[in-house]
Structures
1.
Amino acid sequence: MATYKLTINGKNHSVNVDEDTPLLWVLRDQIKLVGTKYGCGMGQCGACTVHINGKATKSCITPISSLEGKKITTIEGLSDNGTHPVQEAWKAIDVPQCGYCQPGQIMQASAFLEENKNPSKTEIREAMHTNICRCASYNSIEKAVEVAAKNTR
Amino acid sequence: MKNIDSKGHVTGTSIYIDDIPTIEGTGYGVVFDSPCAHGKIISVNYSKAKALPGVIHIITHKDIPGENQIGGILPDEELFASQEVHFQGQPIALIIAESEQIAFKARKLIEIEIDKKTVITDPREAQQKGQLIFPPRTFSLGNTKDSWKDCSHIFEGKVDINGQEHLYIETQGAYAQPLENGNIKVSSSTQGPTAVQRAAAKVLNIGMHTIEVDVVRLGGGFGGKEDQATPWAIMAALGTQILRIPIKVILHRMDDMRMTGKRHPYSADYKIGLNKDLKIVGYEVTFFQNAGAAADLSPAVMERTLFHATNSYFIPNVEATAYSCKTNLPPNTAFRGFGAPQGMFVIESAIAYAANELAIEKQQIQKVNLLKDGDEFPYGQIAEGVGLSPAWETLVSKFNLKATQKEIASFNKTNDAVKKGYALMPITFGISFTKTPMNQARALVHIYSDGSVGISTGAVEMGQGVNTKMLQIAANIFSVSANRIKLESTNTTRVANTSPTAASATADLNGKALEKACNALAKRLKTTAASYFKVDVGTIQFKDEQVLVNGNTSDVSWNQLVDMAFLERVCLTENGHYATPIINFNKDKEKGHPFAYHVFGLALTEVTVDCIRGTYEFDAVKIVHDFGKSMNPTVDRGQIEGGLVQGMGWMTLEEIKYTKEGRLLSNSLSTYKVPDVYSAPKQILIEPLETEGTDMAILKSKAVGEPPLMYGIGAYFAIENAIKAFNPAYKSTFNAPFTHEKVLMALYN
């Protein structure tokens, strides 16, 4: 066990956990930010995606010891009241079905659009293929990323 | 109407089972399961595990006050194995500890000795050894034996279909809390709250009235949480009963995959006979369903296979027999389509084989045999409102089938290493639970004295948008805005004796019950208004939260009317009950009218196969679908896209592998591939079939949950079509899924 100082959604937190504790469980169990979801625990599904210094990262395979001094953003901190262009596009298209994977999808898409403001369809697929949606809302996700990109430009 | 859950979903504020705040002192449960697929338990030593600091208790079959039995249809499944184990992953005990980590550590300290017995994983082997879950059943029409003499072409063959892992991204789980007087509340991620309540009452040896089951929503179900959400919920409740503390049981992904059943693998033999005009005259089929180690829902799944054995075709002579075979796999269970997809894949394979042998296109046989109004299904129901030929014509014209065929042919002429293929896949899917008594539902509606509305139904929201549809029904009848209506959680204390959210019928059943309740309340309020205005009740309407008299806006608002009614002591609560009329089925004769109606449609799947690598990409799937009159096109479109891609996954990428010893190899997301965005078709076009709908469907909006999954079967045959363009010597094996590996073999075999 050790104490780690973390910056999450602009707030400072201090947690006392084992050094190999994945960020996902610190967020969910310690900080009580439960918008980030557990899906597979091996970085294969993307439900746990958050931003670390702006980069989309799978929190279920990110040990807490690697995060001191880094800026962590979760779905709860992406915007005030769901107003990020990606969230707006998601709502406009009604992308979610069961909704469970969608915080991860949105964190993936929002980090991607920071790097690429004008993505092609191929680039959207390449960016989003890391996130599984078992309801298979993929075609809606692709459209929503395009809409978000357009509205951000 | 927009999906009422979208905002919560995109902000991460929607609540799923593991998001419920945990109460101080909660115990965390981890399941200890069998490491062996079949054997007698000689001994289990828990002493080291119990001695680990932080372990609170280990529950086994010995702690059960009631029956150690969770079988829903047949009493053949123990909650915790007592004497024998029948599959790897079968629960033996629940370790309860102060944290999940401690419970996992304790699990590793449990020592078990098992006297191993013979393991069967193949359904045909089980059938040969007489290992059946229950006796076989046969559906028949006409006389196949006499029909062969009328056939110019007769073909026989074998078909194999693998299972499918549900892979709901939210794993199974439940959270139980003690209430006063020994009562227990269970929050469960289940499609069947009443199933959980009933089974828990039996195991805990208490009345159903003392167990409250609550469901907010599921992070995906797809059938996997119809029956198989039950054990974890009972384990949590049992822990709470014994220890009087809250108990949480959330399965980790690999535990979930190892312990739970999947879509049933099937093996089948068929014989198909056609006359010179390509009309199918006779069809015989024998299905070997791999049920796994216990009945679970297999009898009902097997029945639906028989109901859908002829898919969208009229065949005058049919004999379809099915065996539910007991093997040492986890009990296989409901999965979107519920046995129908397997039945359909077999007849589509039979037609494909016949077409191959006759050197004609598969759709030539499909087209001339399409079901029409007045045709009899092998189970006795007469087809009505059949949309198949109209769907075919619409597809040919709207999506220009001929141009697609031409483009594919010309592409294949000019490309050696890449080939395109296509297939047509019609669907006919019966709507209703085939067990008639399950076709009932209730809804409880409160109008609060401020004019706002609360709705409880037996429907579980699992992504299919049923809550949005329920809200729409109430909003239309009362003409109040959506933000004044709340959809409550699905809770057995408010709506009792629910059927599971399954069979695509949930919006119909619960929606009709809700419609009745809302209409009764509206009538009461209109009577109050009529008396106030001293007019006939028929002149009163509601519009935009205002009362209209003879079509004119009055000075009485909805809120004022509700208040007026309350002061006059009018009941502002109503319980609606709906039972589907007409339907019946006689199991002795295997005849009846089991379905309220059928859903029809046709899909054109276009694929490009990389003939060097064996990989493939789906260029487009173009669908003509019978929505009736869709009450929510956005929600329904999502169901079509999602069902289609899930069906395509089953037919292409998703490969479940067990060893001969019954050990699951495809046991995580790194060894089991489900569709990602790359696997989705680049384009999904959906054209609604112009129909009147049916009064048996809620607001004439036909059920949409399961039928589209079977469009995915087209993926298999589109790939075959492309392979044939590369390798004319290719011989079909009809062994799904068509993984990249199998495609590569087929290209060069």
2.
Amino acid sequence: MKVITLRLTLSAAMLAVAFCTAGRAEDRGVPARQGLKAKLEYCKTCHGLSGQGYLGYFPMPRLAGQQPEYIEAQLRAFIERRRTNPIMFNVAHVLSPTMLTALATHFRNLDPKPFGGAPRGSIATGKRIYEEGLPESNVPACAACHGTEGKGQNEIPRLAGQVYAYTVGQLTGWKKERGQGSAVDTSAIMAPTAHNLTRSQVEAVAAYVSYLQ
Amino acid sequence: MHKPRKLEVMKRIGLKIAILAIVASTVPAWAGDGESASVRNCTWCHGTSGQGYMVAPRLAGQRSQYIESQLRSYREHTRDNPFSKQYMWGAVAALGPHAGRDLAIYFATIAPKAANDGDKDLAARGRAIYLDGIPEANIVSCYACHGPNAEGVRDIPRLGGLAYFYLKGRLEQWGQGYHSGVESPMPLAASHLGPDEIEALASYLSFVR
């Protein structure tokens, strides 16, 4: 009797080990092709069929050409609730680390035209703020970190071609969405700058970068 | 319970189509006193005050930009599901963009009533899919585009309170390869929905006011 119980326990343990490694095999390698294709379609349903962004009830940011490190960092922030967004929490928490990397790599290589649609009246003001900052308001030049062409680098996001309403929403609501909880978060770098920009300055910068290719 | 109901509905649709066909040929005879006549041409199928009737969806409270974009898609033959092809392509053929906009604005301002004709037992599941999608199955959240109360925005339609059969039919048609406007994400969004999810969503939405 004892032997049987022991055997059962042993085989159960082996099964558990086997399942663990099966689960991890996907994480170590490349996600199955079908799985990646379906997940990409899922992303693009909201973020635009070429990743150029979309205006739903909420603005969906452009992912095309985005820095992979930034995409990965944000997906992790959604999962850990450092960045609050109920839709993106649901989306992100089922992604395996491998899938997350594969998605980020895919979007980096897309290059559709900007989504467009931003008001054009304040583009010149936006360009000046972007390139020179507003020294009197303690706003550094955006170009200093995001690059003169707005392409970003590593965890610093690409802004070129970003959907206007999305950029406006992020900059005006920075502290309500980003850097939540007690964990350290790179979003803190932007907090004072977002705070020091007026609404019309935010709109000017957002319009300017939305047309950068 | 389900099958006989469907049969009954199909019978009623058949009858309605027969009546429509007769009436459609007589419409020009009494059309002619400006906007009210063109409104009447719509409400004949779309119900009193545009509240929808059978397969013709509610126009009351619908987003005016959405109505306009659909009128355009009928004119350009991009929306190609059977009833659109059969009725709406012809219905909008003589309708200019100006008259179309006036009609769209008129119907958008009428307060909508919910159809309330879905399966109550499926509403909770439908609501969960509407809000969260099913990420594991690559089913997107409807809420991200159609809004927290399914009210729609700009040219994204209000779904709240539309009739169960209309919602179900539309969701199925995208999966079957029919089109709507150009560059709509809906064919992709609907392609992952199974029959159970479609019934749940259509049921939930029919009760939303």
